Amino acid sequence: MSNFLLTFSTDICQLLTDSEEYNVLIEAGDKSEGDFKVFYAHSIILRARCSYFKTGLSNEWARKEGQVTIFQKPNISPKVFNIILNGTIALENEDIPTILNLLVAADELLINEISDFVQDHLLEHESAWLKSNLVLLWSKIHPYSSCKKLQERCLALICKDPLVLFGSQDFLHLDESLLVPFLKLDNLQMEEVELWDFMLKWGLAKNPRIGSDVCSWTKEDFRDMEATLRECIPLIDFEHISSRHFYDHVWPYRDLIPELTIEQIIRYNFKPEIYPQGVTLARRLQFDSCLIRPIHAAILASWIDRLGQRRYLHEEIPYRLQLLLRGTRDGFDSNTFHKLCDDHSRTVVIMRIKGSDEIIGGYSPTRWMTNEGYWNTEDSFLFSFGSRGAIEDARLSRVSKSRSYYAIRLNGSEHGPCFGDKDLTMRGKFDEEGSCSCQKDDYTESVTIVGSFAVNEYEVFHVVRK
């Protein structure tokens, strides 16, 4: 029976291109670009093929010449139209531009099964391409309601790693209508001040005649930037930007922001109990760190639980990071470290190297003490997030199994956290040159090439199970 059906299906497909007794002529492609072809078809087959032609063949969408209905489709290439008409799709043999054009054409012609098939193929087989070309993909699929699967994947990627979008050069060329959906995301793992900085960068790219030094802006410059950012500014939660960051990053641009908003935020910073009218609670993820973002916390939790290549989503993290110490708030000396962090097991130490801005650190499942000696553990590790904080820069260095006896070093009150004999050592006042050092010894690799350094910020977190 299946053989008869296969033969019947083949015969029906031949009717789509058989020029005998045709009553529909479809002009696909653009003559001016040399990519043009005429297809001869039968209305009864086209109506059965998709609902688009049910309507199109019975209204004013097409013109008639005698008994022949003529459709013009300059926006659909002959190659794509041929795939749609024949219903034979081998996407593994097609390039990405053809696949995307097929997706757009399927939406226009209301052929949902092709749209679903193409999206499933891209999600399953082209995930690396999707992440590397997210702006191109989003620009292509954003207007089309049939592309929900891909749209949701794009939004999920941005929520999990915002720099995939905001850190790319393509971001600067996004149209406003394509950018706004990302600004509306509730679970974007990015601090509000970072988002504001990226909005300014985007606005300047749209106004290339305006210089980056706001002190040199004219009234006309402010007017043009305000017009560019008008739809974006209400989507920034200014009340969740710290007063220090507000002064440094927002105040110089206050003429871009509605006066009432500025007044409310200033009032809130002086009296936090008076929440700004008309302002909702934080939509985006808040995270108490000056050095890492929620995505990094997810990576650290994944390393703690030895998930391998898999990584926790933020909502899956079984821990919360409780801030014990921040250098710029509490001090950089070893005595302060022991006062605030001793007797806490399961801690993460994170620091930013002065001069290179590299973010490095370590995790210890054991307790810090002023005693001298070592903790034996195979679960400690060192890490680096590079100087950009990009996810692809994340590096892990576990303690060597044969050297686990020396995993955590306790070296009296003059030293702060020490991993291995030499792998990461902090002593004295950590913000003074030469007070910190990193040299591969008991861990699998070094997390920085800077041998001796000072830090300009460091934080210690207690890892608490939720």
From TrEMBL:
Classification via Gene3D superfamilies: Potassium Channel Kv1.1, Chain A
Domain BTB: from-to ranges: 22-86
Pfam short name (any one): BTB
InterPro entries, A to Z: BTB-POZ/Galectin-3-binding, BTB/POZ_dom, SKP1/BTB/POZ_sf, TLDc_dom
Residue span(s) of domain TLDc: 290-464
PANTHER family in the cross-refs: BTB DOMAIN-CONTAINING PROTEIN-RELATED (PTHR24410:SF23), HL07962P-RELATED (PTHR24410)
Protein name (database record): 11880_t:CDS:1
